[in-house]
Amino acid sequence: MTHQLGVAPPPGIVRPRAILTVLSLAAFMASLDLFIVNVAFDKIGESFGGTSIGDVSWVLNAYAIVYAALLVPLGRLADRAGRKPTFLAGLAVFTLASVLCAVAPGLWWLVAFRVLQAAGAAALTPTSLGLLLAAVPAEKRLAYVRIWSAAAGLAAAAGPVFGGLLVAASWRWVFLVNLPVGIVALIAARRIVPDSRDPAVTRIPDLAGAGLLTAGVGALALAIVRGGDWGWGSRATIVSFAVAGLLLAWFVQRAEHHPVPIVDPALYRVRSFASANVAMVLFGLGLSGYLLLLVLWLQNVWHWSTITTGFAVAPGPVMVPLVTVIVQRVAHRAPAAVLAGLGCLAFAAGTVVTLTLVGPDGGHYATELLPGQLLSGIGIGLALPTLLSSATHDLPPHRASTGSGVINMARQIGLVLGVSIVVAIVGAPVSYAATHHSFVQAWWVMAGADLAAAVACLGMSPLSNRK
């Protein structure tokens, strides 16, 4: 059975809640991988001797860069060829690549398999939302999108704890855990989820543009990560920044003139969409940087085990689904700009509280780290689902899937920048005083990014979360 996006399927054939469960499970798995790998960051570096924090950062960055670049083109290819086959293929690739990551014999093999894993995630994420939007009645779409978006919050809550438990055995288990979840999701999706496609999509998207975006963001990340080692005024650093600027400018130029661009410039004429994307890049930057700093502090300064680190990081993410449920009930009463802006401010406040209270010995976790984590968790629960859902709500139905890909691309670009900035600032300090100073600097940068995100939220339409 196929039907256009925006046309409800015949009653009795489709079970929207079952479809929501299956598609949210896939989204949960893709998001869970990020938070689990964060906890495994140090152990991966130890496993492959002679690697620097900058080298290991590519385990995170390679995934995020490729994921960001392929989200939109694969989403559009799915609109043309069929969303369900693309979703199933992406889920299968992601699951297989997870197993390959688990058996990687070296760091750069792991990075290569993470690229493959990212390609699978980029295929399953926009198609899962497109399938969901096509399968549910129009009046329920916004609520279902918020629930689908909340899967990322649940992954954030479960990831640190699962990661800590799994890494205690081996960091390789953080990838193997995707195997049973992937198999269950594949079987369920084949049986429950109906296919859909957009008959208006007849041309292949700008794959060369996707390559330019990948190379441009990669060059930017390389310049930020290696700038401290090379010297910020060195030829290599300047060349890397220049190459990044040229490639990204070329990407923008192609988008203006290509018949099927990766990012349609017309989308950014929708005020809520443009503002939500700017806010998402900045919020993603602050979020990824804050979480990585937290894990590195617990494991390298307080010398806590991965299990203890996982449980210590969990309280903040646990707040996310709780806040999301509350937001779901009050969202129709408050403008999206207000909810998202308050979330960004709460996250910035949590970051400032953390950098103000944190101490050297780890003896006062409840007073040093917990308050900031709870505030940051409230911020994520307010901001993330609101930005994701409101960004697509004002778009025409036939552009909702593409809009979802673009807003998720913005989040991934923010993640790359956050990780890269943390690596550049923290480096490898040799004393507690130097470590504390570098971490505080990095946390201030993350707080500043989220304050800027709150300002960007002001540009969102106050009615963008209303029907």
Keywords:
disordered C terminus, mainly alpha, 467 residues, 0% strand
Walk me through this protein's architecture:
This protein is mainly alpha-helical and about 475 residues long. It has 17 helices and no strands. Helix 1 packs parallel to helix 5, helix 1 (about 15-45) crosses helix 10 (about 270-300) and helix 10 (about 270-300) packs parallel to helix 16 (about 400-425). The chain is globular and about 60 Å long. Mean pLDDT is about 85; it is low at about 1-10 and about 460-465.
In short:
This protein is mainly alpha-helical and 467 residues long.
CATH C-level class of the largest domain is: Mainly Alpha
Characterize the largest beta sheet: strand count, sense, and whether it forms a barrel.
none
| Helical proportion, percent range | over 70%
Task: Please tell me the total number of domains.
Answer: 2
In CATH terms, what is the fold-level topology of the largest domain? Answer: Growth Hormone, Chain: A
Q: Please identify which CATH superfamily of the largest domain we are dealing with.
A: MFS general substrate transporter like domains
Radius of gyration of CA atoms, rounded to a whole number: 21 Å
pLDDT under 50 segments (min length 5)? 1-12, 462-467
Looking at the overall shape, the CATH architecture of the largest domain is Up-down Bundle
Number of E-state strands = 0
Helices and strands, in N-to-C order? HHHHHHHHHHHHHHHHH
Mean pLDDT: 85
Span of the ends, CA to CA: 28 Å
Assembly level = single chain
Structural class: mainly alpha
